[in-house]
Amino acid sequence: MEINIFQLNNYKLGSVGFTSRELENLKIDFVEEKLLSNDYNGNNPTNKIVYLKVLFDKGSKKILGCQIANEKNIEARLNAIKTIIEKGGDLKDLVKYKVNPTDDEWNPDILNILALSAISKSEENSTNVEANNIENLLKNKEFLLDVREEYEYQDGHIKGAINLPLREILEKKDTLPKDKDIYVYCRSGHRSADAVNFLKSLGFEKVHNVDGGFIDISFNEYHKDKGNLENSIVTNYNFD
């Protein structure tokens, strides 16, 4: 099994196993679990935000693939996922896996934490949509709302998305359609989740949070476009 690593500015983007798009094409029923966390452990932690996405079979919970973005420290984690996939391992195996073999004691890595979150996460009553569905939403001319600050929007956004910072929603709520589905995104999915709840309290019923935010969208698009923005759905990639 091959591990693929790309360099984009200061970031390393790594992938092993299947991607979401490949699993969709194979019509495999899978689940994505994503995590944005500080890279705080291992031999030489960056103490900066690392993006993780692990794909697993919806029924058996077997690990199918993983994508990572970080300034460094992605190789050990990709190798851990590779080992688990090759052994037919599942989420429970990932929870227990010692990602950093030099640790004298088991020191939970963010991969272990992601697996724990995936096991405990309830998917019922979720109005979230996955970042890899954005292209279809654009084709269907759905309403996309970017609730980041204007400077974040200018640094990179989904083409055609409307920018309305979270702090301005109450003041400008009348500019938003109540008769359409509204798909809300931010940097990581946290502010957009707050925006969705706020809009629902204001009487907007058709609002959905884009899980993983623009970081996840950027990762998906870069992996698909190989850095060619001309045909991308985003104006620029952003992993910060």
UniProtKB/TrEMBL annotation:
Ranges for domain Rhodanese: 138-226
GO function term, MF aspect, one: transferase activity
Keyword set, alphabetical order: Transferase
Gene3D superfamilies, alphabetized: 3.30.390.30, Rhodanese-like domain (3.40.250.10)
One of the Pfam families matching this protein, by short name: Pyr_redox_dim
Superkingdom in the source lineage: Bacteria
SMART domains referenced in this protein's UniProt entry, alphabetically: RHOD
Statement: the UniProt record of this protein carries the keyword Transferase: yes
Protein name stated in the entry: Sulfurtransferase
Organism: Fusobacterium animalis
